[in-house]
Amino acid sequence: MSLPVSNIGLKEWAVVINALETGRLTFVFRKGGISEHGREFSLPYKDFLLYPTYEHQRKELLKREFRDSIDMADPIGDTVDFKSWARIYGVSKITDPGVIKRLNPFHIWENDYIVKKMRWKPSSPLYVIFLRVYRLVRPQSIQYLEAYGGCRSWVSLKTDVSLVEMIPALDDESFSKRIGELGDILGVAGQVFEPNATGA
To answer: What is the pTM of this model?
Structure first.
């Protein structure tokens, strides 16, 4: 599984990445990216670095217990800091608000925010992307370039980030238990996802 380097980043709120790195979260929601082709989200990669963003973080979109952990300052400067890498474990589509309610104990967002996200462009499903997350033993910073900016999900980095030493955010037993619980809700327990299989 270990790869020497990665140069692909998935952009996500810094507060969400922190929850993934600490094992509080094991999935993200996705529907689209403004600057992406066709304004639709796609999954061309099965593993990637987690690229922290700050532009659209809003405290009121998080559950109250997570609002104090959000950093409202925008640290965009000369570097981008990478602390983790993830591999896609599975994917599911949501069209029923009732499913979102049942997922509530497993994520950090306000329920209404996720429901609104699902209802935006109702012809397109809301994706739940399960991630096995690994923390870099030696976090790395690379030079920030203007090409990395904008409302897009995927960033091709001009600098490789080393993956030589990593530790899982959740151990195997804890991760399997969490996936089993989520699988009971979504019906995807143990499903292996292959990139582009969603048709997104």
So the answer is: 0.85
